[in-house]
Task: structure prediction
Amino acid sequence: MHKALQQVLELSPPGLCFSSVLRVSRFFDSSDGFVCRPFQDPEDIVRCHRVSKRWRSIFSNDTVLKHALTHNQTLEFLGLDCKNVATEDAMAFFRWRHGLQCAQPVKKVFLPCSESATKVGDFLYHSRRLCYGIWESRTVELLDLETGARSSWTDEQSVNENHKVWCFFLSDCYFAMLWEDAHFTAWNIHTLQKRTLNPGFFPDPEGTCIEKDKMVMFQASTQHSPIYIWDLSTDEVHEIGGFCELWLWHMDLDENMLVTFEIDWDKHPPQVEQIKWTLTGQLVDRKLFHLPLSVDCVDEIGFPPGGLCPNRRTFGHKTLTRLFSRTDHKFTMMDLVYDHAIDKLVLRWSDKALPIKTTEAANLCGLVIPYIITPYMTYQWIYTLNRLDICNAAKGTTTLRPYQLDIREVRTRDVFRNPQPHWILDPEHPRMLPFGDREVFGLVSYDGIQLWFFNPNFVPDIPGAMPFRAMVESG
Result:
């Protein structure tokens, strides 16, 4: 047996153990396009992403190899970096992926909320923290799902000046409020260090977000807006470029780089201008290219001008946004995906088989908003059907799942029984507001919040939450 393979197996228990196979299979190309190359030592394996077919012949058990390759595909599906994942947890990740695909969480709980919060509150989830507040209130509550700790956040100076909270933002280490007079208050969640900023314009709430210690914002109601980056660690603000048709951007804090994409959809195929900037605004690289489209897809694309699509999420080196195209009476969903590791932008078509009345509702109200859970999966609530739509881009499928009411969701049940044409706009009825990520997904109804836990290694006991008890006549 090859010396390098012997050294790899010596690190594991005796025999052909699964963890050893997983370590080696990370360097297999599942498309069978292997590169023949001799290895001198295990370090050579780390430096190469493909290995010789002779290595694969060693693992003659196709079932074992298939599971090993599937493990890497599962991590890719979940948006996780395989370098930071223990191979011993392979089955937990398979269970995690399956649960997301089928809307079958490991654990469900019901968290009661005040009626005012469920009617007009806003909910935001990030890094195992849930924050929520009432629109035009002066305080926002934060619940740490890991520790169960609750805290209230406000700015006394803003309250004394009779200002109200407009919206709020959250990252893994910072929390920020945008007040109605267009100024920000931000805190480091761990050190409680406080920052304030008056940008001199009213930021677009849908285009504003925090990634680690950088807040990105755009000016609302303008056709030519720069990107503003507020460095919360240094309290510096940098203005970058000026954009009319910005449809996607990706920020890499480790490389100190921002990548922007402006797209001219009127050209066939669409023309893309990609620009790389430093986070302080220096232009690094610019290039023009066309976004490949099949001939039969060109007539199905129709976007309003402006870009700045807010439905965007980053998973490591990938950033994607869900786009909605309307042409004549057609309604099409697609994903714009940028992989910074290989510097490639692609347009990925989503399934177009939603019921016609669903797409009509989306055209009329614009309320069918998907929530990006993983790089390949979105959840969205279909108001006209009272169903959860699961779009799996990896398989190219869309599945409608019924919503199982908790026995305490009595008012929500009554609304489901007697829907009204525009009940979602009526404050007397629940909004079914979704939030969450690949670990935890939540739906806010009139009566409270259902929390679904998908990560088998994260099933906390939350103070005040009740075990889920299904209502017999629902779902």
